[in-house]
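We recall that each integer encodes one residue's backbone shape. We quote one record:
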Amino acid sequence: MVKFGNRGKGIACIIASAFGFALMALFVRLCDDYGGEITCFQKSFFRNVLALVIALVVFCRDKRRGLSDGELQTTMVPSGKAWVLLVLRAVFGTVGIFANFYALSKIPIGEGMTLNKTAPFFTVLFSWILLGERVSWRQFGHLLLAFIGAALVMKPGFRGGGTFAAAMALTGGLGAGLAYVCVHELGRMKVNAALIVLFFSAFSCIASLPLTAVDFRPMTFAQVLILVGAGAGAALGQFGVTAAYRYAEPRSIAVYDYTNVVFTALFGFLFFAQTPDALSVVGFAVILLAAFGMRRS
């Protein structure tokens, strides 16, 4: 049986997270095809509700056992500083989600997703600034290489007319990056992983509920099932990224978040017959090269 060190576990978890978020994006994309158009806030609310339920079940199980993720002892009653970080993680994460959803409704998906994929850069940057973690030029170079690969896949045009929306997409990446720094610090403080996901999911549900209620759209049964799938993917993504940044420092694993681009393209091929062009294939190769280089560094 192969045993992974903490870095190996972190890499495995962040790749699982990337798969979960790609799965979530697939279901969100499918939602409007099986009924009327639903607002992004309504999609976000119902996606977060299932993640909230899953996190609550896992948290109750962990509370009975006094464990999290198997053998690791964690705290169920965070300190004052941990509560501040939980709130900041929830605020940054929710702002990131809303900003990204707004951007994707206003500008082409390639441009929006490329700007949002600055999140790993911000995670590493703020880990260096706020937590004092050392980052080598080689590690930053691998991040830049992976970002270039993602841009080749998504091929943003960056034509005029969407400056504010583009700024919102960049804000989405900034929010996610800051949220992941908080997750990493909470992990170092041994705060229960399910509690981190539970608090964030509850906060996001509360924040999106008024916006959902103002413009609620009736949903078909198929759409409800699809959003359940989106919630399951979001839960996998949240638990994966929470575990990843507990096991390892952002500088050593953030680059693997770009595997999300590969998973998203694969789902596009399988479910929407979107065949990758030559630039996309080169982009995939560049992302894998960056991941391989980071693994050896």
